[in-house]
Design a protein that fits this description.
116 residues; alpha+beta; five-stranded antiparallel sheet; 29% helix
């Protein structure tokens, strides 16, 4: 911390330092948030989701030709295990808090690609 200039009173100097600290605190919180984000891998996941074609009645042969919906999701990989992959798409203003999560069944995953 610098010393107050000779012309500046101590009260003014303290007030200036407090203003500076008030501006720095939110930035410090953001740095903590970015450090948390840096620990997690940013990934692109290609996976198949369940789909519904129509509400109409169709013959069994036509119904047997159902398809899956190909999906692409991007986010920070919070969890990856044998059952699921959990991606977080947002970080809050507090470090170590995430939102906009999606849980993808592992058996539905076609490909995972790490993004830089």
């Amino acid at each position: 911390m610098s010393t107050p200039p000779k012309r500046e009173s101590i009260k003014k100097y303290v007030a200036r330092i407090k203003k500076y600290q008030a501006r720095i605190r939110p930035l410090a919180a953001r740095v903590g948030e970015l450090r948390t984000a840096a620990k997690l891998k940013l990934v692109l996941v290609e996976w198949d989701d369940a789909a519904s074609d129509t509400d109409d009645w169709v013959p069994c042969g036509v119904a047997a030709m159902g398809t899956l919906s190909p999906i692409v999701s991007v986010g920070f990989m919070v969890t990856s295990n044998r059952k699921v992959i959990i991606l977080a798409q947002s970080f809050g203003s507090e470090a170590d808090k995430v939102a906009d999560r999606i849980t993808i069944p592992r058996h539905s995953v076609r490909r995972i690609r790490r993004l830089k």
